[in-house]
Specification:
Elements: H1 27-39, H2 46-59, E1 63-67, H3 70-80, E2 88-91, H4 98-105, E3 109-112, H5 124-130, E4 135-141, H6 150-160, E5 163-167, E6 175-176, E7 179-180, E8 187-191, E9 204-208, H7 211-220, H8 246-277, E10 283-284, E11 292-293, E12 300-303, H9 305-308, H10 312-321, H11 339-342, H12 368-376, E13 377-379, H13 389-412
Parallel strand pairs: 2-3, 2-4, 4-5, 5-8
Antiparallel strand pairs: 1-9, 6-7, 6-11, 8-9, 10-12, 12-13
């Protein structure tokens, strides 16, 4: 006998409130922030500089630049690389908006390519097909904590004379063939906004081994002043105020010390879920490629909508009723379906910079793999580092209940 779903009046699997994710902080972060508060040096200063040295040491790179947020990191990177009007970048349509929209800040545009069916990251073969005579670079996103396959993407970039930015906002601490994600390409960008693997409230950083790019990014993020000089009244180009505060850096230094441990906790809990979910019919847990060490920013669960006879949204609704909350924010709609790209909304009342590119129509583009993933994948939980074994067991029980119910109904209709 199939148990009645909670969404239809049955008893829910989970009776108490499910944990909400919060940053992993303790007295060390509090003491570090208090010390900055008492120092009366709050804007960029010695703590930010030390944080940058810590990042360089931890990730094994020559240069780190701490910034106000992850979107700023992407923008500073593209600006330093010289992206401009009538240029384009190739990236994934299955990601957060900033990975693609930042190109517009430089009056360039993104061109989208389909994704890999297992990692949900940019497919190298499809990325190469999207390259045009205007393409200047590739923005690779390490989605949900799983590194993209960087070797073929970097080879394609080298073949076509392109740079590569790694958007590592969701993959701090992930590994690609023993190298940290974000340290492999031209520039790696990171986010430490609240909710990310490392959190400083708002914040981000760039990593690079290129001396000239490091100098440019350092200047651009501070109104394009000469970086690390006392001349504060000379400006060498179009710059921005993307400086990190001492408060953010103080928190970041303590968070960095915990990064490896936090990733291991996420991996341990993700492994527990996968071991228990992989045998449930109609349920497809996230995979981990042989080259990757997944950081599990999100646990991206896939369902076989055809076998279960329901939509992803219907499954999410039933699971939420069982006490396992799934919010709309934990699903990633294709960027081509957003108003920005669908209607090509530009600056002011114009369609600029989209108007520079004749024949560009995002609304008519088809990405079979990304569209299938969009229909079937949702981000089950971002609370992996704080879940107890009882929490994990409730997730498994709820998924098993919901999937078995829908599966039985689907078979009954055939």
């Amino acid at each position: 006998m199939v148990e009645k779903l909670a969404s239809e009046g049955g008893k829910s699997i989970r009776r108490k409130k499910f944990p909400e994710f919060h940053a992993i902080v303790d007295d060390r972060e509090i003491k570090a922030v208090t010390k900055v508060l008492r120092s009366k040096t709050w804007r960029r200063g010695p703590v930010v500089e030390q944080y940058e040295h810590d990042l360089e040491k931890h990730f094994g790179v020559k240069h780190a630049l701490a910034l106000s947020d992850g979107t700023a990191a992407l923008h500073v990177a593209m600006a330093a690389l010289g992206l401009g009007p009538r240029d384009d970048v190739v990236t994934t349509p299955y990601t957060f908006l900033a990975s693609a929209s930042v190109a517009l800040y430089q009056n360039a545009i993104p061109r989208f390519a389909d994704i890999d069916s297992k990692s949900y990251n940019l497919d190298p073969e499809q990325a190469e097909k999207a390259i045009t005579s205007c393409t200047k670079g590739i923005v690779v996103v390490h989605l949900a904590g799983h590194p993209a396959d960087m070797d073929p993407l970097c080879e394609i970039a080298q073949k076509h004379g392109l740079w590569v930015i790694e958007d590592t906002a969701q993959a701090s601490g992930a590994l690609y063939k023993s190298k940290y994600a974000g340290t492999i390409a031209t520039i790696g960008t990171f986010s430490t906004v609240d909710g990310k693997i490392m959190s400083t409230g708002e914040g981000g950083f760039c990593l690079t081994n290129d001396d000239e790019l490091a100098r440019k990014m350092g200047s651009i993020h501070n109104f394009y002043r000469a970086h690390a000089t006392s001349n504060i009244h000379q400006f060498y180009g179009i710059g921005y105020n993307y400086r990190m505060t001492e408060f953010q850096a103080a928190i970041g230094r303590e968070q960095l010390k915990k990064l490896s441990r936090m990733v291991e906790t996420r991996r341990r809990n993700a492994d527990y879920l996968t071991n228990h979910l992989q045998h449930i019919e109609g349920i497809i847990p996230p995979s981990e490629a042989p080259y990757a060490k997944h950081a599990f920013y999100y646990y991206a669960l896939r369902i076989d909508t055809k076998a279960l006879g329901v939509t992803r949204e219907e499954f999410e609704k039933a699971l939420t009723a069982e006490g396992i909350p799934i919010s709309a924010g934990r699903s990633t709609p294709l960027l081509t379906k957003t108003e920005l790209f669908n209607k090509k909304i530009g600056y002011g009342t114009t369609r600029y910079p989209f108007s520079l590119y004749e024949g560009l129509e995002y609304s008519s583009q088809v990405f079979p793999v990304a569209e299938a993933v969009d229909r079937e994948v949702f981000w089950l939980t971002d609370a992996l580092p704080i879940l107890t074994r009882d929490d994990l067991d409730d997730i498994v029980a709820a998924i098993e209940k919901v999937s078995s119910t829908f599966l039985a109904r689907s078979r009954g209709r055939h």
